[in-house]
Write a structure and sequence with these properties.
The chain is about 50% helix and about 10% strand. The chain is mainly α. It folds into two domains: about 20-85, Orthogonal Bundle (Helix Hairpins), CATH 1.10.287; about 95-195, Iron/manganese superoxide dismutase, C-terminal domain (minor pseudopilin epsh fold). It has a three-stranded antiparallel β-sheet, sandwiched between helices. Helix 1 packs antiparallel against helix 3, helix 1 (about 20-45) packs antiparallel against helix 6 and helix 2 (about 55-60) crosses helix 3 (about 65-85). It is globular. The two termini are about 30 Å apart. Bound molecules: manganese (III) ion. Manganese (III) ion binds near residues 163, 165 and 166.
């Protein structure tokens, strides 16, 4: 069974003006699709072809000879997780259990926001900003390229793609503005809450 590009969880115009349909046409339709196509080509007729996406990511993460497979598999997973990390009329402060856990871990929602924005802005080159569960506690992290929390013993709760292709059409070089918009207008806290388990 070949992997397939999951459809977006909302219409490509649903996050405008914060993320344009044009960005989704390239980012979902071309970039995410290319990772899916590359992964299928790389695992075709190998024992990995029958494994789940998560199994492929974990099995190839520590094997330099399988870096191409890891990069494409992790990017397939990361992008699907990113689309779900956003929703129309999202963002702002969460409520409920996740709000309590954020206050407990960071002191306040504003301090969490500062830490998340800083992680995304200081990821040199391509990568991802994350909110993760690590040993039951929330943490902000950043990963380069395709690296993903599951291979670092962490559970992903929320992510923002900070590769240039994620924001360049809408924000050009202004990555900090993109991160601020993500937090203020796009975050899907219902999805993040579900990831607390
Ligand atoms: Mn991307």
């Amino acid at each position: 069974m070949a992997f397939e590009l999951p459809p977006l969880p909302y219409d490509k115009t649903a996050l405008e003006p914060h993320m344009s349909a044009k960005t989704f046409e390239f980012h979902h339709g071309k970039h995410h699709q290319a990772y899916v196509t590359n992964l299928n080509n790389l695992v075709k007729d190998t024992p990995l072809a029958s494994k789940s996406l998560e199994e492929i990511i974990k099995e190839t993460a520590k094997d330099d000879s399988k870096a191409g497979i890891f990069n494409n598999a992790a990017q397939v997973w990361n992008h699907t997780f990113f689309w779900n990390s956003m929703k129309p009329q999202g963002g702002g402060a969460p409520t409920g259990k996740i709000a309590d856990k954020i206050n407990e871990a960071f002191g306040s929602f504003d301090k969490f926001k500062d830490e998340f924005k800083n992680a995304g802005a200081t990821q040199f080159g391509s990568g991802w900003a994350w909110l993760v569960l690590d040993g039951g506690k929330l943490k902000v992290t950043k990963t380069p390229n395709a690296m993903t929390p599951m291979v670092q013993g962490q559970t992903a709760v929320l992510t923002c793609d900070v590769w240039e292709h994620a924001y360049y059409l809408d924000y050009q070089n202004r990555r900090p503005d993109f991160l601020a918009t993500f937090l203020d207008h796009l975050v899907n806290w219902d999805f993040a809450s579900k990831n607390l388990g």
